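Sample entry (201 residues):
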Amino acid sequence: MCSNSLHRSLTPDSAQTNSAQTNFVQTAVKTQPTDLQAVINRTLRSLRPRLKSQSEQRGIQVVCDYGDLLAVECSAEIDQVFTALIAQAIEAVSPQADAAHTDAHTVTVQRPQVTIRTMQIPDPQGGNPRVVVCVADNGAEISLEEQSQIFAAAGKRSSSALRSCYEIVVHQHGGDLQCYSQASGTEFWVELPVNQARSLA
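Predicted structure, serialized as tokens:
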């Protein structure tokens, strides 16, 4: 499903990144060690029909750049997060896929692409590492105003699915969920603590 080539995705500005842990109020959920990359692969298989255009050569390209990750303690609802974010990325680039099919010989039509990166980052205090999953697309830019409201009920680009993602990642798992966008595309940045018990300490 994923090609092995690398793609430069957006890198979030540390000044923009919120510390969700400071506002973390955990909802009681049943968690278990989970292989997030297996969850992502399962999600991609379920969304495969949406990746194809009328012309197989001009469908949406998926690039996966997976790092070495520990299993993450999370609930089954984490599947909903990656389904929603990957579906959002596919929707963002679908107009490009249609344009490429309509005018397949025009070299200026950019191949629509969804990129998924995973990495593990250490806890600066040495206790509980965190896993990061980035879902990026090369679709149209989202304005700064829309980015700031994308997980809010009043946001123009918001949806119940994105609001649920924020609830699951931030409030149920003590993680962080951010949206970054510029002319080259948009990225959703999911950060989760590996160990839920330690995240409460």
